[in-house]
Specification:
Length: 87
Amino acid sequence: MRIRFFRTQPPKGFDYKPVYYDEEKEKQAERLRMLEGVDKSEEQRKLALRDSWDKMKGRRTPLKSAPFSRLLVIFLGLLILVYLLLR
């Protein structure tokens, strides 16, 4: 009989199944539900909320580039100022 102080556990397996989100397929399924006349008010609210969130996200995107360009202009101005002072 052997005495072991450290026992290594066998590797644990996993069954990962990736889930892919297809926006076009989901919108098509929603249109199909609307044509069938199935009333899913909660689903409609979720879809409306998601659409409004996407629209709001799209509007904010150009605003993110403004601070970067402002920072770039300030940096270039400081760089020119330092160049002129050291010359």
